Amino acid sequence: MTHSAHAEPTNFVAAFSDPAAAARYADGPPRFVPGFEALHRMTGILLAEHAPADARVLVLGAGGGLELRALAEAHPGWTFVGVDPAREMLRQAERTLGSLMDRVTLVEGYIDDAPDGPFDAATCLLTLHFLDPAAREDTVRAIHRRLKPGAPFVAAHGSFPQDDSRSRWIARYEAYAVASGVDGEQAAKARSAVQAHLHTLAPETDAVVLRAGGFRDVELFFAAFTWRGWIGRA
């Protein structure tokens, strides 16, 4: 196991290990991430630009199964390996996927627990912000190592300016959640967790991490308040 294997903050892992929280997970991301469903749709389109019709796709941070379901429904020839450290979230993924599970293998753990591949494509959505910069680069490099040459990789996570405007952006994150129906106290707790525990970087730094991890042709394709998404190729 490399440094990345233990890099996710324990408070977030503990939260995702709670069965009740895992069962409620599907309600959360659409209320906190503007364009959540569109992000999944765009991810499938971007991967399909270079991935074959029978692609084998690595999904890191797959717990809950929402992006697995979206990708599997949009691309019936694809098969998937989904990796996540939280067992309850993987159980929730099984429930979310239902009959689609016949095209999905779930692995409990981190990137170092994933098969070596080579994979035709990979995604890491709403996950890399849990890792400090060194662990993030290690993880990106480990994803790259598992991909075929030229294979596409989509990453999307919390990424916004880390200068004097940082607190203003986090306030907007909270305000969006409240406007989407999240209880004010819950939104405030989420804001505090982001402020204290997430390893958010500036978007330009995130792009540098992806390039340092081995990816080329890195392009920003998604920007919504405190969220960014990139496409790159191995």
Automatic annotation (TrEMBL):
Biological-process GO terms, alphabetical: methylation
Entry keyword annotation includes S-adenosyl-L-methionine: no
Domain Methyltransferase type: 58-152
Xref: SUPFAM superfamilies: S-adenosyl-L-methionine-dependent methyltransferases
Keyword field: Methyltransferase, Transferase
InterPro entries: Methyltransf_12, SAM-dependent_MTases_sf
Keyword Mitochondrion in record: no
Domain of life: Bacteria
GO MF annotations in UniProt: methyltransferase activity
Parts of the chain that traverse the membrane: none
UniProt-listed Pfam families: Methyltransf_12 (PF08242)
Name this polypeptide is given: Methyltransferase
